[in-house]
Each structure stands twice: as C-alpha cells, then as structure tokens.
Amino acid sequence: MRSALTTVAIAAALVAGSFAARISGSTGPIPLNCDRACLEGLIDQYLAAVVAHDPSRLPLSQDVKFTENSQVLQVGDGFWKTASGVGNYKHVFADPEFGQVAMMGTMREANTTILMSVRLRIELGRITEIETVFFKPGGGGPNNIEGLDKSKPEDVWFRSIPPAQRMPRQQMIAIADAYFTGLQKNDGKGIGTTGTYPFTEDCHRIENGSATTNVPRPANEKPGTINLFSMDCLSQFKAGLYYVVQSIHGRRYPLVDAERGVVWAHSVFDQGTVNQGVLADGTKHSYPGFNRPSSILVTEAFLIENGKIRRVEMIGPSAPYHINSPWGGLSGN
C-alpha cells in the first residue's frame, strides 16, 4: 500500500511540475474534465482570440505547436494578423476522451469569406496543438464558400448515440481509412475481402462548401455523359472515376466524436501525374488538362452509421505536390 501511494504521489508531483512549467497565456487553465460543452466553448474562445489578434486570451502551453496549411508558425502570426471576423457556418466536433476539439467553418478576411478547419488538442488544462487549414477564393476545385456561409450542418450530424450502441474507436477509424484506401488508385473493385465500399445508400459529400455527390444533372446534358458529381458516393467509387488520385498519404485520425459517430481525419491527396485510365466497366476515360502534379491538403469529417459512411464534409486547398505534413501520419503511402 505504501509503495502504491508513493507511486501515486510521485506521479502527481510530476504532473503538477509539468503543468506548471507549460502554463502560458493570461487565462486560467481549461478544466481537466473538459466535456463536450467545455470543448465547444473553447472553439468559441479560440475564434474570438483570433479575430482580436490576441493569443494571450487563450490558455496556451509554452510549447504549443501551431500550423497553417502544414506550415509551422508562431501563434499570433499568419491568419491571426489578418482575420476580420467569424462567419456564419460553424460545425464543431468533440472528443472529450482524448482532449480534442475541431471545427469546420467560415471566417472573414480582407472583406472576403474563407473556409477554415481548426483542431485543438488540450493537455493538462492547456492547448498544446493548433492545426489550421484554409481554403480561400481561387483555391482550385469545386467550391461554394458563400453558399456554405448561408447554410448550417444537417441535423443528421447531431444525433446522440446511446453509449451501449457506440462503435469502438478503432473500428470507426478503420471505416474512415477504408474511404481513403478505396479512393487511392480507385479501380471500382472494392476493398478487402468483401469487394465493396463502406457507404450507406444515401451517402452525400460536401467539399469546400460544394456538393460533389447527388447533384441533379443539367436538363440539356447529352445522354450517356459521365457526370461524376451526379452520382452517389458508392456509384462514384464503383465506377473507378478517382483513378487520378495516385496516393493518399499522411493519414491521421486525431479526433473521434464517439457520441455522434464522427471521425475527423487529415491526409494529403497526390494527383496530376495520371490523367487517363480505364473505368471499372472497361471504358477508356481521361481528364483533359489534368496533367500537373499537385496535392490537396485534406481535412475530412466522416459521419458513420451502422458501420457505413453516411456523410462526408471536407476542406481541402491545393498544395505543393507530395507535401509532407509536420504532424506526421499513420501511413507511408
């Protein structure tokens, strides 16, 4: 008993010492049992501090790591200097078990609306990690920034799953990772022994504010036209239309919102080196002009229901080809 108590006391002293050494900022520490409401409030606190251009409003660790689009910066630099307001769209995800909270939303900069994803990690009552990704007008690819700013997340994202019905963390991550595996060098043959892809029949995806599935076909569209965005998630993958994505590397899953069935992921898509392929049905296909090596710095949220992906929300700006994140990754692809 004495040995056990001594061990506990030593551990407590080490924690206290570490905590004291890492305190920064003018605000008090975050509660050690920070729940969903506490974490969601921290996002509001973060956004207010950014717009005020004042990092001292946050309970920061002295060794906090901060990035913008995978570039390591000092807190207070970059968008901290140019932010002019908070937008109308805000979608927050919380992981109290692992001290993580994240948001996809709109922000204001230089009289324009931009998209931002931000992830915060909390340890010992202080923010130790800040990872931000921005998509701005002219950032390439389909986008609808202003449209997203006028909308709100679907109610389906906010269901509360009873504890007994929640999936294990690693199983949820495996399902999200299957999305990337199925997308990488997509051939339409499915993944694993099942030869299929983990999507519900009503799966829908939003990328940079724009729907990239289930978009109504134009009335004057020529019969037989391959219209990628008119398809649902499963049909896109089964067609093999994403063969252009040659590598999805740096995959990470730092946040799992178990209560709502959501996995938050970061990765890098490498593309532009292949623009011709053969679809799953044997049809030859090409993406004219898609022949410049580039990458997409991806933040993606997956809503998982009964073991399948029902909704996907993504923010992903263009980035230098094969960019490597300073946060590392769980895959070497």
Structure description:
The chain has 333 residues and is of the alpha+beta class. It folds into two domains: 22-149, Nuclear Transport Factor 2, Chain: A, CATH 3.10.450; 160-319, Nuclear Transport Factor 2, Chain: A. The chain is built from six helices and 15 strands. A hairpin with a 4-residue loop joins strand 9 (247-257) and strand 10. The chain is globular. It starts with a helix and ends in a 14-residue tail after the last strand. The model is unreliable at 1-23 (pLDDT under 50).
Question: Would you kindly provide a brief summary of this structure?
Answer:
The chain has 333 residues and is of the alpha+beta class.
